[in-house]
Design brief:
574 residues, five-stranded antiparallel beta sheet, 14 helices, 24% helix
């Protein structure tokens, strides 16, 4: 068993960590089958260490039928063969720790797969059986039970209920699935569910993982009786989310986590409309931190960003939790594409997937936004490919789309596949280095093949599971590695400076007035982050430039000028 990586510090590591999100099937393919895997990640650990992040968060790698890309878990204690083996996962954890990288794994406690042994047993056991009590099986409404038990809708579209057919051919009850029908919701009122997940926590903690990202952390508990949502519901009081009983779950989990050494951590995916609701999950005996979706959804606008930053700091301060900042993830449109639109905001309910975007403008703004995010107090997340400046792939053919939201919405929602396209690593080859190269091929900088996973010489790797678009060769890590002006170089420089200048500082900032359409804040020790959103802006006299998101201009007086949509880090005089 691997022990958690020790790195003592005055401030717990998770309060200021830069965490890199790995969507494993799209990161790197180590065995040449066209799907990313553990072997591919192990081969790219030197790249991740050179990038300068502190921890790796892995999307689900458990045994799964892959109805929702692994978020339909059939076995929480094993690795899906698509990705490797449990032994390989243990080796990866140990190797990551050897590179001073912590490992966070996804945990999916709201629902499981319809292939999970519990659900298979529940279907076989029949009406009224104890096995069915672990889920939400309820009789339908209507004269013949032909209507769902309530009016809840799935997040993926359509009703949140599916009716089963019993073994004798008769129509049976309905079961709840807030996502796809292949993802039945677990009944957290049943003691077996809590006992099971406490054991799952210990299983992975014993193998050295440094923490868990909790999927749908706000959704485990449901209101007693599962009442209707009704017309014009209060978004702060929905019966399937943010029910008080969920906090008991996390307090129980925290007691377990705190018995392990090494500053292990819980991170919540918490989508809620009010800051006060959100903050309750971050109390001292519950979760350590949670994703800041308000920041992710915020438009590229100085006033809107300042408002979100202020609200974030204000909501975290009373519970003593560190704020976090994120620009993109595996469920949202990549920020390079969002920032190139006329409307730069993001809404999960209306993603505007096909809105046109100026990619060059979006990448320019994305560079500036990266420096803002990395300068803010607290933790930060980098979604794989952010450091390469990858845009959303908006023109994937219908026949290759795999996200269940595409099917469940009848094609109205094209889903999340556009942000999940396999990464480009090299400038050539059929998969741009995503799939393992044949023996003798030149390796990308920072790539070391994992033992036992180098393809046989002369064999051709399979095509990536989603096609990479034209033009991505120039965005690959190989093309950007030696380019001093690339997005990759900017991220490496920024992460290094962040670690040297900002890690461990108080989780506060002071706003400075730099004029209209600017965002300007100071951190302890004379560090200033300054962004110009509209007109070019002369830099303050006596300030030393630490890093800029793009080239600076020169004013008529010879002073450096910050161009529009550009961020600079400064060391202020005195």
């Amino acid at each position: 068993m691997s022990q958690s990586s020790p790195r003592p510090a005055a401030t717990p590591w998770w309060r200021h960590a830069a965490i890199y999100q790995i969507y494993i099937r799209s990161f790197a393919d180590g065995n040449g089958d066209g799907i990313g895997d553990i072997a591919g990640v192990r081969g790219r650990l030197p790249y991740l260490r050179q990038l300068g992040v502190d921890a790796l968060w892995f999307n689900p790698w458990y045994v799964s039928p892959m109805a929702d890309a692994g978020y339909d878990v059939a076995d929480y204690r094993d690795i899906d063969p698509l990705f490797g083996t449990l032994a390989e996962a243990e080796e990866l954890i140990a190797e990551a720790h050897g590179h001073d990288l912590r490992v966070i794994v996804d945990l999916v406690p709201n629902h499981c797969s319809d292939r999970h042994p519990w659900f298979v047993q529940a279907l076989a056991a029949g009406p009224g059986s104890p096995e069915r009590e672990r889920f939400w099986f309820l009789p339908g409404r209507g004269a013949y039970g032909e209507l769902p038990p309530n009016d809840w809708n799935s997040y993926f579209g359509g009703p949140a209920w599916t009716r089963i057919t019993e073994a004798d051919g008769t129509q049976g009850p309905w079961y709840l699935h807030m996502f796809a029908p292949e993802q039945p919701d677990l009944n957290w009122e049943h003691p077996d569910v809590g006992t099971e997940f406490e054991d799952v926590l210990r299983f992975w903690l014993d193998r050295g993982v440094d923490g868990f990202r909790i999927d749908v952390a706000h959704g485990l508990a449901k209101k007693p009786g599962l009442p209707d949502v009704g017309e014009n519901p209060d978004p702060t009081d929905l019966p399937y989310q943010d029910v008080d009983a969920v906090h008991t779950v996390y307090r129980d989990w925290r007691k377990i986590l705190d018995t392990y050494p090494g500053e292990r951590v819980f991170i919540g995916e918490v989508w809620l409309p009010e800051a006060e609701q959100f903050a309750r999950y971050l109390r001292h005996d519950e979760l350590h931190s949670a994703f800041n979706f308000d920041y992710l959804c915020c438009p590229w606008d100085s006033g809107a960003l300042r408002k979100v930053v202020d609200a974030t700091l204000a909501s975290h301060e009373p519970v003593g939790a560190p704020p976090t900042w994120v620009l993109s993830n595996h469920d949202t449109i990549r920020h390079v594409t969002r920032y190139g639109r006329a409307d730069t905001s993001f809404d999960m309910g209306d993603k505007r997937l096909l809105d046109p975007s100026d990619t060059a403008l979006g990448r320019h703004r994305g560079r500036a936004a990266a420096l803002v995010s990395l300068a803010l107090p607290g933790g930060v997340y980098v979604y794989q490919g952010d450091e390469l400046g990858l845009p959303e792939v908006q023109d994937l053919p219908d026949e290759v789309l795999q996200d269940p939201t595409f099917v469940r919405s009848g094609g109205a929602d094209r889903g999340r596949d556009g942000c999940r396209v396999p990464l480009p690593w090299e400038t050539g080859g059929p998969s741009l280095g995503f799939s393992a190269p044949a023996a003798g091929h030149v390796q990308t900088a920072g790539h070391v093949p994992a033992t036992g996973h180098v393809p046989v010489a002369g064999t051709a790797p399979a095509a990536p599971w989603l096609p990479q678009p034209e033009g991505w060769a120039e965005l690959g890590a190989e093309a950007q590695h030696e380019d001093p002006y690339s997005v990759l170089t900017l991220y490496r420089q920024a992460l290094a400076l962040r670690g040297a200048e900002l890690a461990g500082l108080p989780e506060t900032l002071e706003w400075a007035d730099a004029g209209p359409d600017t965002l300007c804040f100071d951190r302890t020790g004379g560090f200033r982050c300054l962004t110009a959103f509209a007109s070019p802006l002369p830099l303050p006299g006596g300030a030393r430039v630490l890093l800029a998101s793009g080239p600076l201009g020169t004013g008529t007086d010879g002073r450096p000028v910050l161009p529009r949509d550009t961020t600079v880090w400064l060391r202020m005089a005195g």
